[in-house]
Every structure is written in structure tokens, then in C-alpha cells.
Amino acid sequence: MRKAISLYEFLIVFGIIAIIAAISIPTIKSFAPSLKLSSSSRSTLSALRQAQEEAVTTQKQHLIRFFGAPMNPAMLQLIKKEDTNETILKTVTLDKDIMLVLDSSINNNQIIFSPDGGPSASGNITLSLENAAKIVNVSPAGVIKLQ
């Protein structure tokens, strides 16, 4: 004789799963803005480090150009600079509703990395969403870190 699951057992298990899902969905949704902000700040950090590494490796200037407010979504471009020519190597579009604000020390909305890895400007790049913010800092010595 084969054992099978009864309809009642199936409905009870399905009901328990539905209750657990109903309880956990609001909790998951509350973490979504934080995850978007973390993702965008890591993408910004990564692009800055990539520009710096490319400049040192190729011995050509590389820059990151920022496009923040009023542009939504905000974005940034990794650009290789040779004399007067610029070649876009990568475009990073940040998550929707992320606000991008640059320190006034970052001129022309860009940071240029020289062949020795040094930045043309130092300061903070602030990414914010709702009540949270993350800061990517570029030091005068070229140290790029997430605060």
C-alpha cells in the first residue's frame, strides 16, 4: 500500500508557508533601500578604483565624470583621456532615487587620475537614499575608501 499526503496535510503546510511569507515580506522590504544604497556606493567605489588602476597600468590619464542631480537615475562614466580625445570605457547607472552629491572641491564634476595614480581633486562623494547616506572619500594621496 502506497502512502500519500492528504489534502488536509497539504493545506496545513501551504498555510504555514503563506503565514511565514506574509510576516517576512515587510521585513525584506524595509532592507531594500539599504541594499540599494550599499550597492550604489560599492559601484561608485569600484569605478573610482578602476579608473585609478587603469591610469597607472596604461600610463594615460583616466577620469570619472559624475552626473548627479537633477539627473535621475544618477550615473558616472569611466573615461580614458588621451590628449584632447576622450573614450568612454564604462558607464555605471546608479539605482533609481539615489541622490549623488559631490564636495565643492571636486571641480567640473570629475576626478582625473594621473599616470602615478594621484587624483586631480579630493573630497567626498555622498550617496543618499531616504534617511540614509554613504560617503566615498578620495584623499589627496589617492586613497579611495567607503565611509
Could you give me the name of the CATH homologous superfamily?
Answer: minor pseudopilin epsh domain
Terminus-to-terminus distance? 65 Å
Share of residues in strands: 25-35%
* Proportion of helical residues: 25-40%
Structural class: alpha+beta
Question: What is the correct CATH architecture?
Answer: 3-Layer(bab) Sandwich
Count of discrete structural domains: 1
What is the CA-atom radius of gyration, in angstroms?
23 Å
Average pLDDT, rounded to a whole number, is 89
Give the beta-strand count.
Answer: 8
Q: Describe the largest sheet.
A: 4 strands, antiparallel
- Overall geometric form: elongated
H and E string = HEEEEEEEE
**CATH class placement:** Alpha Beta
Query: Low-confidence parts, pLDDT < 50 over ≥5 residues?
Result: none
Provide the CATH topology. Answer: minor pseudopilin epsh fold
Number of helices: 1
In which order are the strands of the major sheet placed?
3-2-1-5
Describe it.
The protein has 147 residues and is an alpha+beta fold. The protein is built from 1 helix and 8 strands. Strands 3-2-1-5 form a 4-stranded antiparallel sheet, covered by helices on one side. A 4-stranded antiparallel sheet has the order 4-6-7-8, with helices on one face. A hairpin with a 2-residue loop joins strand 2 (75-82) and strand 3. It is elongated. The model has no long low-confidence stretch (mean pLDDT 89).
